Amino acid sequence: MNWTTTRLALIGALLAVSSVASATTIVDFKPVPTSPGIPEFGFHRPAGGGAPVFRAQLGATSNNDGALPVQNQTAPGLDSETPFILAGPGAVNDLIAGTTAFYDSSFQFTAGLQANAPALNAGGTFLQQLSPGSFQIMSTGPAPILLLSGNVATASVIVGSGDSGAVFDANGVNYTGGIIYNAMLANNYNVNNSSFSISMVDVNPAFSINPADGFLADFDANATGLLNANPAPPAPEPGSLTLLALGIGLVAGARRLRRR
């Protein structure tokens, strides 16, 4: 067996052991019931002046009816689904799928996410950078509990021209608390350096850049969102460890033969 063959064997063994886990959705939220006339998110300048901020609007806010049967619930409020079996206000478990839907939950940005640089226009695609921020997802009331909270290191709004959809993109997300956070820890998820996105439609008014300050103009939008996390890599199976040992053995044997 030549040196090239042994190196290939070792590479194959390492690949078998060190496969990288892909990101998993830990919260998938959407308005239930749908409410096209009640926006979930918006980008607005404060009444007293200053740079605009990205914030949740009325459509992403609980109206405390999550304990009612789903067909009796009214807007606003979000259905926040997570891949864990959990209990709490508004929770509906799917034991077959192993998931929980928290009806009539709320999403709130609690700090930051202020425009901190002029918007860029790249051939009709706008990019608005935002400052770091924080968020929380709460269950339905009247006695809501914290489902998930976290901090955002970098964020931006990426939009097309006209009245097409847009994406709020957050990276460097560190989750910090809530019952979903506890479930992540219990199931060996990495709670740091994650990401999430919010997809926006029915944007009103159409996207544009405000010539007075160079930031995106104010807008409201309906939206859905996905929050992600990375599971910790699984422990190598005995068969993979055997394959790795075999590959290392082949390399060592090849080196001994080359010295003779």
Quick overview:
With 260 residues, this protein is α+β, with helices and mostly antiparallel strands. The protein has helices at residues 3-17, 179-186, 238-259; strands at residues 24-31, 41-44, 53-56, 78-82, 91-94, 99-112, 120-122, 125-130, 133-138, 146-159, 166-177, 189-190, 194-204, 219-231.
Largest sheet data: 8 strands, antiparallel, barrel
Computed CA radius of gyration, to the nearest angstrom: 24 Å
The residue ranges in which pLDDT falls below 50 over 5 or more consecutive positions are 1-21, 243-248, 250-259
Strand residues, percent: 35-45%
Q: How many strands appear in the DSSP assignment?
A: 14
End-to-end CA span: 15 Å
Number of domains: 1
Count of alpha/pi helices: 3
Shape descriptor: globular
Q: What's the pLDDT, averaged over the residues?
A: 85
Query: What is the spatial order of strands in the main beta sheet?
Result: 1-4-6-9-10-11-13-14
- Order of SSEs: HEEEEEEEEEEEHEEEH
Query: Oligomeric state of the chains?
Result: single chain
Helical residue percent? 10-25%
Structural classification: alpha+beta
Helices and strands in order, then pairings?
Elements: H1 3-17, E1 24-31, E2 41-44, E3 53-56, E4 78-82, E5 91-94, E6 99-112, E7 120-122, E8 125-130, E9 133-138, E10 146-159, E11 166-177, H2 179-186, E12 189-190, E13 194-204, E14 219-231, H3 238-259
Antiparallel strand pairs: 1-4, 1-14, 2-3, 2-14, 4-6, 5-6, 6-9, 7-8, 8-10, 9-10, 10-11, 11-13, 12-14, 13-14
